[in-house]
Amino acid sequence: QVQLVESGGGLVQPGGSLRLSCAASGSIFSINVMGWYRQAPGNKQRELVATITTGGSTNYADSVKGRFTISRDNAKNTVYLQMNSLKPEDTAVYYCYIERPVGGSWGQGTQVTVSS
Known about the structure:
Layout: E1 2-7, E2 10-12, E3 18-26, E4 33-39, E5 47-53, E6 58-60, E7 68-73, E8 78-83, E9 92-100, E10 103-106, E11 110-114
Parallel strand pairs: 2-11
Antiparallel strand pairs: 1-3, 3-8, 4-5, 4-9, 5-6, 7-8, 9-10, 9-11
């Protein structure tokens, strides 16, 4: 089994910053992709925020490009999401995701609320 432990969510004012972390443990091997998705209030689906491969290739949603930065520490099996210039529309539950040859795994989610 794989455990994903997220941290770093919270309440922040518009224009502020937060840094999310997600540490993977357990039966970890061959993690290909690590990433973040989010589910906003009232939305039934999770949307991609950003992903990063083992080699460091990144992919971002258009809505966060230039504001969010994803990074990972392969030795620690940890992925980070630095979120700057936060907007109220970034309010959502953020989920960590990892992809391995045997399949994907999700974290439990961490709430990010952007409000004055």
